[in-house]
Amino acid sequence: MKAKSPNIKIALIHLLSKKRQTIVAMLGVTFGIAIFIFQAGLMSGFQTVFIEQSINTTANIRIYNEPDNKRKSVLQNAGEKDNEWIVVRNQKVKDEQTNIKNGYQIIKQLEKHPEIAGVSPFLGTQTIFRLGIAQTSGRVSGVDIEKENLLFALQDNMAEGNILSLENTPNGLILGIGLAELLGAKVGDNITVVSPKGVELILKVVGIHRSGIVEVDKTRAFVNLRSAQQLLQVDGSYLTDINIKLKNIDKAEELSREFTARYGYTAQNWKDANANVFGLFKIQNMITGLVISSILVVSGFGIFNILMMIIYEKMQDIAILKAIGYKDRDIKTIFLSESLIIGFFGGILGLILGFTLQEIVGSIRMNMKGFVAMEHLQFNQSPYFFAFAFVFGMVVTAIAGYIPARKASKIDPVDIIRSK
Amino acid sequence: MEAILETKQLSKFFYDPVEFQALKNVDLQIPKGQFASIMGSSGSGKSTLLYVLSTLDTQYKGHLFLDGEDLSLKSKNDLAEIRNEKIGFVFQFHYLLPEFTVLENVMLPALKLAKLDQKQIEENAMSKLKMLGLEDQALKKANKLSGGQQQRAAIARALINEPKIIFGDEPTGNLDSKNADIVFEILKELKEKYNQTILIVTHDNNFANKTDRIIRLHDGEVVN
Fold first, then answer.
1. Are B224 and B36 spatial neighbours (Cβ–Cβ below 8 Å)?
2. What secondary structure does DSSP assign to A277-337, as a single string?
């Protein structure tokens, strides 16, 4: 049996001689890591749910005609000098058509594109919904419901009714669940829909849909394309948007640029469409990161503290070890091991505690209706978080241990032995 | 006779609070197998000399040779290795690690040296303890022993790596006369049976008079 270096044994004995403080320092790491896992898992879980639901309600790529409202009027270009003012009062109302002019041809082309899984025509407009004395504003989405279902899996989230019954009911209407509640509408009711053009249609509720995003559910209703075209008094080829589902969602940015260039209309990908949300998440993650790190830094102080105490108490042991030939490096190893032992076991406990907390809190049923509607808190339990939390904990521990360890290694045995 | 320990023009200064020369051009030779003592009044520099000679204190001028090797230019790490292999220490206090058993304490320097395997080191430590009459205390925690026993355990620890020289700083200073005599007899036996070189700092005349040679120090100078 090879001679075992006694360094680790010395470290363990030091820790055992201060059981209570060691446990407190360990628990500091445990709580730090548990909160890390809990918090990071919660944030990331929430964001994942939100992103999934947003992706389910926004197209991977949406092609639409962006009206150029800032275009100068003809008169404004008529002045001779740049500093001449031309004032036109009471401009006449003029309808700017925001449709995609050759929409169906574009759709036919896109359907043959190898990267595309589905294409759905869309015509949207503001409307007022009325049922009895109830009245609320919202939007109708005129769609080809079969294609729309292919893109957004609407059938999976029907609260009532069947999505495809819209196809069989020309004057059908599918309400968002929030909208249905506002109107007090049930399947089978007839809703009066009024468009900005003043056109009134009476449509029959054939289903109620729940997207999960509260704001969408409160304002959106699906109708057949033909009904939407009637509301806007336009012909049967009139479309405002083309929604596209890709086979590979990560190609959205590249393809959206390609489509913008090819068709001359704006092609917006899902990342740009949700840019504000992703920006919000970035800030949220930063704040979470800061809070978690500061908790771990506090646990670092706990370790620093106990090591300093041990060093002051074991000054003579350090002196004699150095006198009998233990090098600075050995002393450093002893005290660094002590902090890493605390960090390791505290960390393992923290992983278990964090996981347990997630399981417990995740199993509590709570109906939340905020930004999104969820029945349970969703945690991201990716092993990446656990590994990262553990490594981060060990790094903090190592830094907190290194400073006292260095100090211990610099102790001059002559000072200690002579001063007796 | 071959000198185990030799100094040439060894000087030592303290700068704090004021500049003060603690050792003045000390030239000293300790031959192999000599049991020597350093005496002097307090403040004469005798402990300072011992710490310089034993390589714990490296802030000096001049040359120090141990076993023919010049140590004055060695790094701290090299000196630690040299102390581990060639030097044994016995201080006024035993400095045993209180939570370790006596046997483990004695094994510590050998475990660091790591020239032998665990079992051989244990056997060696046991035989040193037997030699010092402590075999029945081997598995007790070091802080459970009496003062005399602890000092003997410290001597066993000093012997474990078969050092070239043993340094003692008032090794009997904290013991009653009976235990002081026992410690002296042990050191004497080491010299006589094993030709062990020993250098002891003491202010005990009785002790010094029984050694082979007394080196007297006065104001940092050797005065015999």
1. no
2. HHHHHHHHHHHHHHHHHHHHHHHHHHHHHHHHHHHHHTHHHHHHHHHTT--HHHHHHHHHH
pLDDT digits (tens, 9 = 90+) for A161-175: 888 888 888 899 999
Residues of A in contact with B100 (CB under 8 A): 13
How far is residue B138 from each of residues A14, A44, A96, B114, B186, measured CA to CA in Å? 21, 59, 101, 21, 18
Distance from first CA to last CA of chain B, Å, rounded?
20
Residues B163 and B194: their CA atoms lie apart, in Å, by 11
Name the nearest CA neighbour of A241 among A106, A387, A70: A106
pLDDT digits (tens, 9 = 90+) for A293-347: 888 888 888 889 888 988 998 899 999 999 999 999 999 999 999 999 999 999 9
Report how far residue B126's alpha carbon sits from residue B107's, in angstroms, rounded to the nearest whole number.
9
Buried b (16+ CB within 10 A) or exposed e, B148-177: bbbbbbbbbbbbbbebbbbbbbbbbbbbee
- By residue count, chain A amounts to 420
Chain B contacts of A418, Cβ < 8 Å? 47, 51
ipTM surpassing 0.95, yes or no? no
Contact (CB, 8 A) for B13 and B21: yes
DSSP state string for A182-226: HHT--TT-EEEEE-TT--EEEEEEEEEE--SBHHHHHHEEEEEHH
- Beta-carbon neighbour count of residue A358 at 10 Å? 22
**Tokens coding B61:** 């001028």
Give pLDDT, residue A362. 87
**Cis preceding linkage at B17, omega within 30:** yes
Chain A: residues touching B (Cβ < 8 Å) = 1-6, 10, 13, 16-17, 316-317, 319-330, 413-414, 417-418, 420
Strand partners, A240: none
Query: The whole model's pTM is what?
Result: 0.74
Nearest-angstrom CA–CA distance, B42 and B53: 18
Question: Which tokens sit at B7?
Answer: 């100094």
B58 contact A CB<8A: no
pLDDT at B213 over 70: yes
**Distance of alpha carbon A185 from alpha carbon A179, whole angstroms:** 8
The superfamily CATH assigns to domain B3-96+164-222 is P-loop containing nucleotide triphosphate hydrolases (3.40.50.300)
Q: What is the mean pLDDT of residues A49-55?
A: 77
- In 3D, which of A64, A112, A24, A1 has the Cα closest to residue A302? A24
Which residue is closest to A3 within chain B, CA to CA? B118
